[in-house]
């Protein structure tokens, strides 16, 4: 089996990445278990940091100061995987720690997967709460029971980090869309999995992850617009069954923001989205 692992960095030294540290520690284990493996580090930051990883075998570093987001980096790793005949692509955030337990669970189960099983995801824990995978039939998935471990042909979604993806399936969907260059790319991906009548395996293994929390007092208006544009586009074009409750959510959120957020551009943009959807 051949595995390519992709980690995307932005303004972070590779040696300071929890994910890279944990993966490099597992390289001796990979040598025993995989026919071939590669750690692809795609750096969107302004400074070339290739020297941090120089001389380490099975590490492929790319510097791209254009900072085009996740989808561009993931597509690079996808095309590289096709060209070099990798079977699986593993997506990883810089702040998720990879465990030997999860790798072993994948190795012990992947060979028995049918071609219809195109993804395996861990249970991701942040602050003692399982934040992924979650159900997709509600606006507030963290208030609902989590999908059980095992095979799922019913719609669920998961964060990018920790997701094993079958490269042949990515070819079927023409790689990662540019419609969601950063935010909601994971939602789009798992929507495509079920649109194509494929299945996802939820692992028993749990991974620790530092989940980013949206802070309206610290976020810039440009970053907020980017997030809200992706979010609204996803619900409008891919989850129209939840569009009505999503608009209600936007209205309530905008009214709350008008009271508690100093930057009035934030709540004005929220309400603009509500009235234009």
Automatic annotation (TrEMBL):
Taxonomic superkingdom: Bacteria
Annotated Pfam families: Glycos_transf_2 (PF00535)
Xref: Gene3D superfamilies: Spore Coat Polysaccharide Biosynthesis Protein SpsA, Chain A (3.90.550.10)
Positions of the Glycosyltransferase 2-like domain: 20-137
Protein name: Glycosyltransferase 2-like domain-containing protein
Classification lineage: Bacteria, Bacillati, Bacillota, Bacilli, Lactobacillales
């Amino acid at each position: 089996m051949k595995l390519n692992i992709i980690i995307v960095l932005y303004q972070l030294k590779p040696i300071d990445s929890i994910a890279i540290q944990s993966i490099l520690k597992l390289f001796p284990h990979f040598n025993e278990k995989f026919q071939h493996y590669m750690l692809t580090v795609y750096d969107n930051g302004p400074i070339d940091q290739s020297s941090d990883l120089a001389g380490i075998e099975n590490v492929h570093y790319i510097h791209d100061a254009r900072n085009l987001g996740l989808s561009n980096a993931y597509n690079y790793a996808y095309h590289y995987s096709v060209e070099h005949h990798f079977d699986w692509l593993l997506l990883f955030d810089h702040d998720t720690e990879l465990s030997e337990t999860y790798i072993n669970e994948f190795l012990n189960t992947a060979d028995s997967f049918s071609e219809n099983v195109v993804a395996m995801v861990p249970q991701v824990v942040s602050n003692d709460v399982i934040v992924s995978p979650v159900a997709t039939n509600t606006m507030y998935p963290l208030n609902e029971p989590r999908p059980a471990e095992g095979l799922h042909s019913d719609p669920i979604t998961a964060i990018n980090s920790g997701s094993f993806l079958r490269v042949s399936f990515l070819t079927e969907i023409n790689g990662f869309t540019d419609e969601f260059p950063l935010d909601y790319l994971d939602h789009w991906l798992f929507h495509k999995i079920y649109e194509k009548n494929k299945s996802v395996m939820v692992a028993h293994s749990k991974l620790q992850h530092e989940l980013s929390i949206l802070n309206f007092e610290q976020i810039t208006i440009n970053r907020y617009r980017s997030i809200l544009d992706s979010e609204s586009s996803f619900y409008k074009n891919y989850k129209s069954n939840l569009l009505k409750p999503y608009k209600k959510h936007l209205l309530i959120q905008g009214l709350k923001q008008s009271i508690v957020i100093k930057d009035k551009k934030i709540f004005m943009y929220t309400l603009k989205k509500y009235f234009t959807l």
